[in-house]
Prior knowledge:
The protein is α/β, with parallel strands linked by helices. It has two domains: 7-53 and 170-351, Rossmann fold (3-Layer(aba) Sandwich), CATH 3.40.50.1100; 55-154, 3-Layer(aba) Sandwich (Rossmann fold), CATH 3.40.50. 43% of the residues lie in helices and 15% in strands. The chain starts with a helix and ends with a helix.
Amino acid sequence: MSEDSVWxxxxxxxxxxxxxxxxxxxxxxxxxxxxxxxxxYLKDESSHPTGSLKHRLARSLFLYALCNAWIGPDTCLIEAxxxxxxxxxxxxxxxxxxxxxxxxxxxxxxxxLEAIRFYGGEIHMVDDPRSVYQVARNLAHDAKGHYLxxxxxxxxxxxxxxxxxxAESIFAQMAHEERPIPDWIVCGAGTGGTSAxxxxxxxxxxxxxxxxxxxxxxxxxxxxxxxxxxxxxPEARGSCxxxxxxxxxxxxxxxxxxxxxxxxxxxxxxxxxxxxxxxLGRRVGGSSGxxxxxxxxxxxxxxxxxxxxxxxxxxxxxxxxxxxxxYDDHWLAERGINWSSAAASVATLFENHARSAEA
Length: 359
């Protein structure tokens, strides 16, 4: 074997060994006293070593690139990211002793930037989020490196048929619940990779489960789902919810495997985030709030129709990285995000009638 082949084999072994040392993420059951026939489950992706759902994606992207021989012992790695994917990729780059550069918008939460640097990554900021792609390509070209390109490879780097992907994990963990086949799985879309994996797995396993994607109102994905000719966002201002929603339709977004999309305003995402954080006794991120708001709407529809069942959604990351943004009332007020009524609305899901009457 050549030296590069030996290095590649060792790189794959290290990544697989890291996965083998990690337990699966938890599935948290949330009872809904007002709707006893409906149960909500939260797949807690914040328990990954790098603290978010993107740990799964980063691992898959590294293995995909390694097995395509796109990465060698001296390759500089570059990624365009809103933060969380870059944090996880910096972790794996450090594991392999490789230089890593994250191209991120200037609006990225500072704690995410600190986490990227903690794992040895470098930061390249851009003012216009729409320019991250080209800037990343240019940096990769100049450094003779590799652009990991999560937005293109997310839907193909993960084995959607199984191999411990998030969908297989969800259904395995649900096996002993009273309603093991969920009526709905709700997730967001940043690259589109997670929704593509879940949607394909549902069809491959012939489950009756439907997939709903919760999308920020200021995102292109839900517009494209409704009208496939719409591919870019006309508005200049995007959502403040990091990690999901995009100004253009990404190559990894596969609308045909999605059954429904729900557009969510930023104040609804923040309110739902605050409500579930209060209920759990710990902070979650903004995209988790987006997911939960969509779940609340589906729960209300099921209850009105007299249907029972289970719903699963994702806690994409923890809230520790958003203390200076989503959990800062002054920061929210400056941006005109009035979240209180949305939080109160979602909080009723977790209250019983007696407690509500006493309040």
